[in-house]
Amino acid sequence: MTQTLNAVGRPLFFPPSLATDDAGVILPRPMDELASFVDQVASDQLFPLMRRLVNGTAKRKREARWSAVNQQRLELLRLCIDRALADRLYCLPSG
Hints:
The chain is mostly helical. It is built from three helices and two strands.
């Protein structure tokens, strides 16, 4: 489970739970909730979240039960990158 913070410092979790289906596959977050999840992430937490998404996917890529969540981690990563580009988070002024 990956944790980050929203704009007011409350924790956000991805996936929201570790509930599984009958085959033991961890249930992913509904796809239509991913964009709103990214919007809730605090700007200063976006890059650390992206790193944790990549590391979590790499760590569990051989575990079938994480397959749906891993796919969503990569979709979430794409949305995070889109937000970072749109918000110009790659060129913040120093100090």
